[in-house]
Write a structure and sequence with these properties.
The structure holds 2 protein chains of 2 kinds. By secondary structure, chain A is α/β, with parallel strands linked by helices. Chain A has one domain: Thiamin diphosphate (ThDP)-binding fold, Pyr/PP domains (Rossmann fold, 3-Layer(aba) Sandwich). Chain A has 12 helices and 10 strands. An 8-stranded mixed β-sheet of chain A has the order 2-1-3-4-8-7-9-10, sandwiched between helices. Chain A has a two-stranded antiparallel ribbon with strand order 5-6. In chain A, strand 9 and strand 10 form a beta hairpin. The longest helix of chain A has 22 residues. By secondary structure, chain B is α/β, with parallel strands linked by helices. Chain B has 2 domains: 247 residues, Thiamin diphosphate (ThDP)-binding fold, Pyr/PP domains (Rossmann fold); 140 residues, Rossmann fold. Chain B has 13 helices and 16 strands. Chain B has a 7-stranded mixed β-sheet with strand order 3-2-4-5-7-6-13, with helices on both faces. In chain B, helix 7 packs across helix 9 and helix 10 crosses helix 13. The radius of gyration of chain B is 21 Å and the shape is globular. Chain B starts with 9 loop residues before the first strand and ends in a 12-residue tail after the last strand. The chains are: A alpha/beta, B alpha/beta. The interface between A and B is large, with 48 and 47 residues. Strand 2 of chain A pairs parallel with strand 9 of chain B.
Chain lengths: 319, 408
């Protein structure tokens, strides 16, 4: 058993071929899922990426202050409204000038699912040659925990607080990753921090797919401060999100959706929510609504992934 | 001194929009973002056709909205590319956040804005209100009078925006519906001449570029000293742009044989007693009325603003000093002030004009034309002011009801 664990670890470490370009101490909360992800990306994909970010939790560290930076990557701090268009401008100019590049447009769910979705969708439709990574912490965390389009049913935020007339967010979340896969882009996938080898593989696949156009990665990145769980539980929260099918891991290569991790006996969603304070007020009945929504999304995904055969690209688009 | 090329340019009868598109093509941009809006659409249609014909070797990004157009060209510009995009009215307003960001990042973008109204009632008519709504963004603003000047200003704009000492985005404005769709003879320069005119930029130090692996970023948090330094540098660059534009206009004449006088164009100003200050397509009408008035013995002149940001105060003071009376014609409003925006700004320099009196005319908004009759009224009223008669400070020329009791 111990030996198997060691094997897994070695497997993940094998993907870390590049130095961590970030300073040892950075201005993130202890247990921050975003920090782990942000450090992981260049270690897998290389330090020669151009990373772009927006005002968000990632901004203080990603964008630096004045002439000081927390990392050695080439970066562009831009607007939430036009993040994907900004990355488009970079990738297109590099292509025109013959400059080898990997542009990574790195945004929270606020930018990706909400205020910047229009231009994300536009960039995907045009099959722009860059990688878009959404770190999903299910809300606007940097402004002090407000609801976003990916905030799940029942979660409390400062704009969906719990009260006598409110259960928290009284709406269901959107499924951003499936929505992106529907753009017929070369690669779309979900990933999280409890399954780093899966994440690493997907980062490399995205880098490869970028040669053929747009690649999208939706990474579930829990927020200890905003959700209310112990900092040491970040990975456990991710793990349980996967094991309850709250956040299934899949990928879509050229439209063909495939589960990258199949949970044989999914646990009830309450085994996930019990770790997190933002769900603490939910009754059994409310939890059932959340469970039903998780099942609903999984059913959609199942329907899309179970069909046999390949999605054949029009001949002119094959490499 | 640069010597003149002997090859002939070509006179083509084209619209202002076509002139803008051809100028953009001649400037050989690396990246163009295209999104339609009336009355600009023809610009990006023509560029798309040039691209489709293989005449334009650029990355053409058919964005899903103007906000993305500005974001894309901003990024491409900071990565090191030459960029172009075009918009108008609501499109300009939809890219507002990116317009501010591009200015702050000192991205040397050249954009054409075809002036159109932007009020709550969705007006599809000419007007500079869109320009006024972005005047404090930190861009350089140039305004064209006719289709020829549209082409000339776009080319001059690249020299100004990308100049190593400036590095500020430039917006070239021209009146929608008038210049956008008006066809007139335009002297279209040959590619070699344009290449030579722009080649000066290649002799300058390379500007800072965002390159992969370059250990360089842009868009950091600016705080305290860092922010102050950048803002002050931006303001200083805007000031430097005045002399630079004057010089570019001169060099332009050496190659293409056309000069407009730089920041402002003076028309029959030398011995003028009364002056109209105007900008854009109205200036052609004003010039012809001035010619007629001159025959009647009225010493009238025109001061045309070619540059609106930075505000060419020195050049304007020099031209206007000692004139008996000045009428400023605005094709937009300055809410919170009675007079038009350019009038209100010029007022700040009134004490430096040696006693010249000033009044404001508002005309040409809401689908009204600035007619020759209207211009004659403006000149007559300004003459009355010069003669010491009691005239209104603000006149809505096409809306006499404004002057009725209870009006301004």
């Amino acid at each position: 058993m111990t030996e198997k664990k060691k094997d897994n670890l070695t497997k993940v470490m094998d993907y870390l071929k590049h130095e961590d370009p970030f300073s040892k101490g950075v201005a993130f909360c202890p247990g921050c899922g975003l920090e782990l992800l942000l450090r992981f990306i260049p270690q897998v994909m290389g330090n020669d990426i151009v990373i772009t970010g927006t005002p968000s939790c990632s901004a203080p560290v990603l964008l630096g202050q004045n002439n000081q930076s927390w990392h050695t990557l080439s970066y562009f701090g831009t607007l939430m409204t036009g993040a994907a268009a900004n990355a488009t401008g970079l990738a297109r100019y590099y292509r025109k000038a013959g400059i080898k590049n990997t542009v990574v447009c790195f945004n929270g769910d606020g930018t990706a699912a909400d205020i910047g979705f229009g231009n994300l969708s536009g960039a995907a439709e045009r099959n722009e040659p860059f990688i878009y990574i959404c770190y999903d912490n299910e809300g606007y965390m940097n402004t002090g925990i407000q609801k976003s389009g990916t905030t799940p049913f029942g979660a409390t935020t400062t704009t969906t607080p719990f009260g006598s007339a409110s259960k928290g967010k009284n709406l269901r979340r959107m499924n951003l990753a499936l929505k992106m896969a529907m753009h017929k882009i070369p690669y779309a996938a979900t990933a999280t921090l409890s399954d780093l080898d899966d994440l690493a593989k997907k980062l490399l696949k995205a880098k490869e797919a970028k040669k053929r156009g747009f690649a999208f990665l939706h990474v579930f990145a829990p927020c200890t401060t905003g959700w209310g769980f112990a900092p040491e539980n970040t990975i456990e929260v991710c793990r349980r999100a996967v094991k309850t099918n709250y956040f299934p891991l899949w990928e879509a290569e050229n439209g063909k959706i495939r589960m990258t991790k199949t949970v044989k006996k999914p646990k009830p969603v309450s085994t996930y929510t019990e770790l997190i304070k933002k769900f603490a007020h939910l009754s059994q009945e409310d939890l059932q609504i959340l469970q039903d929504d998780v099942d609903y999304e999984y059913c959609m995904l199942g329907g899309l992934s179970l069909l046999e055969g390949e999605c054949r690209l029009p001949a002119s688009l094959e490499d | 001194m640069i010597t003149k090329v002997q090859k002939k340019s070509q006179i083509k009868v084209i619209t202002g929009n076509a002139a803008a598109a051809i100028a953009a093509k001649l400037a050989r941009p690396d990246v163009v973002a295209a999104y339609p809006i009336t009355p600009q659409t023809e610009v990006i249609e023509q560029i798309s056709q040039f691209h489709a014909n293989g005449e334009m070797d650029c990355e053409l990004i058919t964005v899903e909205g103007e906000n993305s157009a500005m974001n894309a060209v901003m990024a491409a510009s900071l990565a090191g590319g030459r960029v172009f995009t075009a918009t108008s009215s609501w499109g300009l307003v939809f890219m507002y956040d990116a317009i501010l960001a591009a200015a702050g990042a000192r991205a040397p973008i050249v954009m054409v804005n075809v002036n159109r109204e932007t009020p709550g009632i969705i007006a599809v008519s000419s007007g500079q209100q869109d320009m006024i709504s972005t005047r404090d963004a930190g861009w350089i603003f140039l305004i064209a009078e006719d289709c020829q000047e549209v082409l000339d200003l776009v080319l001059q704009a690249y020299r100004l925006a990308e100049d190593y000492d400036i590095q500020v985005p430039v917006m070239v404005h021209y009146d929608g519906f008038y210049l956008s769709y008006l066809s007139e003879g335009v002297d279209v320069p040959i590619q070699e001449d344009v290449d030579r005119f722009l080649s000066v930029l290649k002799t300058q130090p390379e500007r800072t570029k965002l390159v992969p692996g370059g250990r360089l970023g842009c868009g950091s948090h600016g705080i305290l000293g860092g922010y102050l330094e950048l803002r002050h540098k931006h303001v200083s660059a805007m000031e430097r742009a005045k002399a630079k534009f004057q010089q570019i206009d001169k060099e332009y004449e050496e190659i293409f044989g056309r000069s407009y006088g730089g920041l402002v164009e003076e028309y029959r100003m030398d011995d003028a007693d009364v002056v109209l200050v105007g900008s854009g397509s109205m200036c052609g009408t004003i010039k012809s009325v001035i010619d007629e008035k001159r025959e009647e013995g009225v010493k009238a002149g025109l001061l045309k603003m070619r540059m609106y940001r930075p505000f060419p105060s020195e050049a304007m003071i020099k031209a206007l000093k000692g004139k008996k009376a000045i009428g400023v014609v605005d094709r937009s409003l300055c809410f919170g002030f009675k007079g038009g925006p350019i009038y209100t700004e010029l007022k700040a320099f009134e004490t430096k004009l040696g006693g010249s009196k000033m009044i404001s005319f508002i005309d040409g908004i809401a689908n009204t034309d600035i007619t020759k009759i209207n211009v004659a009224t403006m000149i007559d009223t300004t003459c009355d002011l010069a003669a010491g008669k009691n005239v209104r400070e603000v006149t809505w020329v096409s809306y006499p009801e404004a002057q009725e009791e209870g009006g301004l």
